[in-house]
# Entry
Amino acid sequence: MKKAVILVVGLVLWLSAWTGMTKSVSAEEIKIGYINSLRIRDEYKEFSDAQAKFDKEVVEFQKQDQTKRQQLDSLIKAFEAQSLLLSDAKKKEKQNEIEAKKEDYRKFFEDTFGQDGILEKKNSEMTKPLLDKINAILEKIAVEENYAYIFDAVNANIAYAKPQYDLTEKVLAELNK
# Structure
């Protein structure tokens, strides 16, 4: 956490130097705060309840995954045990059946656990309203208490910044000269 705070202070000093704010710091105090997003997630009851619900759903999908893998493994073992006794046509039929099961399992796994899969979408559905609420409260506190920046100490991201300190337009203008 100390490293994150040091990183945040360093970033603010760099931003100050970059924007020329150091000249006006004495005239205008720049108020900086930070949050610990992990602690917020852990101690915010609605968030921890949503996480517990999501974890239960993950366990159910993991059970389905294990069942499908066991079925595939059983099919492969049965084929290996019988392969010497099967005709070429029957071998081909069993191999096609195994390949179809492998493809079914791969599709299930990708659709469930993969990027943009069921679990990712469910997690997003559950957490987005809560994250929106957290961000609204952050913005409310920042405006009411006049914070210029609020950083997340966990990953050193900016959780809130006054729009007047956004340098994107200036950087783009310089780059596109």
